[in-house]
Please model this.
Amino acid sequence: MKRNERLVDFTNFLINHPNKMLNLNELSKHYEVAKSSISEDLVFIRRVFENQGVGIVETFPGSLGGVRFTPYISDERSREMTEEIAELLREENRILPGGYIYLSDILGLPSNLRKIGQIIAHEYHDKQVDVIMTIATKGIPIAQSVAEILDVPFVIVRRDPKVTEGATLNVNYMSGSSSRVENMTLSKRSLSIGQNVLIVDDFMKGAGTINGMKSLVHEFDCFLAGIAVFLEGPFKGERLVDDYKSILKVDRIDIANRTIDVKLGNIFDENEPK
Amino acid sequence: MKRNERLVDFTNFLINHPNKMLNLNELSKHYEVAKSSISEDLVFIRRVFENQGVGIVETFPGSLGGVRFTPYISDERSREMTEEIAELLREENRILPGGYIYLSDILGLPSNLRKIGQIIAHEYHDKQVDVIMTIATKGIPIAQSVAEILDVPFVIVRRDPKVTEGATLNVNYMSGSSSRVENMTLSKRSLSIGQNVLIVDDFMKGAGTINGMKSLVHEFDCFLAGIAVFLEGPFKGERLVDDYKSILKVDRIDIANRTIDVKLGNIFDENEPK
Model:
C-alpha cells in the first residue's frame, strides 16, 4: 500500500477505533512499513485532527508504545452545536396541550443525536466513565449516542420489570413533580460493583427520576460519574438533585403566544466547575 | 493544506457525511486546489474504501457533479459479524427462567450495535428507506444503529400513549404468542404520507407485534420497505407475518443442558430474493 492509500486507511481505522490503545509494532507489521513511517503518518493525522477539531491523537513511546485517538470537540463547537439544537426547540409548533414540548423528532434524527452525544461526551472527557445509565424510553437514544463516543456500554432502567431481564434490583422513588411513589428496576447483571456510572436523560423537571437512578447506582455499589440531561424544564421549588449538568434549559413556555424561552444549560455556566 | 493532510481531512469528511451528494466545485474551493486534485484524491480514497470494505465512493460528472460515499460491507463481512454475535448468544448463562434469552448486554454495547446496524443496512442498501420504525424498548438501539448508517430518522411506537407525544394514531393488534388483543400508538407527527418505512425489532416469536407495526404503517398511508428482526425465536404454528428478514435464529433452547441452538437467520438463505 502506498503512503497516500495508507493515510486514507489509517485515518479510517483510527476513527473507527476511538479510545483504544493501538500498538505501533502491530500497525507497522500490518502496513508492512517501518515504525518511523507510521510515526510520520501520525504527524499528518494529528495535525489535521487537531486543527479540524476531530479529536486528539496521542502517541506513547516504549516497546509497548502505541497510539490512541480520542474524539474531542472544542468548547466553541460544543456551544455552536447546542445553539443549532436550541433553534429546533424554538419552533412554535412544538408546544403540546398542557405545556409539554414535543421532542421525539429531534431525538429521532441521527445527526442531532450525534451532536448531543458529542456535547455530553465533551463535558465528561476527563472523567472516568465505565457505563452510561438511562431510563426508558426517550433517554435511550441519548445514552446510546454518548456510549458510542465514549466507547462504553449503556444500561436501560425500566419502570416495570420484564421476564427478559432476569433477576432485577428495584428501588422506589418520589416523583419530583407529583410527589407519588414510583418504582424503577434494572437487571442485576447490568452493572458490576465499583463501576463509574454516568446518568443521562432527555428531560428533567423535579429530578425525581434522576434521583431514583442515583439511588440505583448506590444500591449496585457503583459510583456516580455525573448526571447529564438534554433539557431542563421550568420547576418551582427545590429540585431533588442539584449535581446535574443540562445542555439546554427552558425557563418559560408561553402557551398563548406559542413561544418557548430556550437558553443554554448550566454546562455553559462559566463559574461551574468543569 | 498539503496533499497528505488533505487526504486525512477528506477521508474524515466523507466518513462523516455518508449518503450525501458533495459538490466537487465546493470541495475544490474549500481545499483551495483544482478539481483535478480532488479527483486524484478520490482515486486513492475509492480504492482503499473498496478494498477494505468501508464503502462505495461514486463520482458524478457534469457542472453539478459530485461525490457520494455510501457505507457498504461485503456479504462475507456481514456473515462474519453475524457469526461473532451468534457466539455471544451461545453463552450458557443467557438462559433465563421460562426459557427467555438475556439480550440486554449485547444490545447495550455500541460495537455490537454498530455491527447489527451494518448487517441490516447492508440488506436494504438498494431499497428506498425513508424512516425506521421500532417499538419500545429493546428495538430502539437497533433502530438507531440502522438509522445512523442509512442517515434517516427513526420513530418509536409505544404500547401506552404519553402526553409528550401529542396526537397519536392507535391500532389494536393480536399478540401472536398469547392471542390477546393489545394496543400500540405512534405520534401523528412521526410519519408523512407515502414514506417508505423499514420496521426493525430485537426479537420475534409469533410476529404479533410486527404485524401491529405493519398495520400502523398502513394506517399512516405509508409503504413498507421491509421488516428486519435481530433474533427469530422458536415458534410452533403459522406466524402472522412471513415477509421478514432475520439476522439470527434460535431453533431450540435446551434449558436442562443450558444450551441455545443459534443459527444464521433467513437473510443468509441463498434462495431468498434479495
In short: Chain A touches chain B through 57 residues (CB under 8 Å). The mean pLDDT of chain A is 93. The domain at 3-71 of chain A is CATH 1.10.10.10 (Arc Repressor Mutant, subunit A). DSSP finds seven helices and 13 strands in chain A.
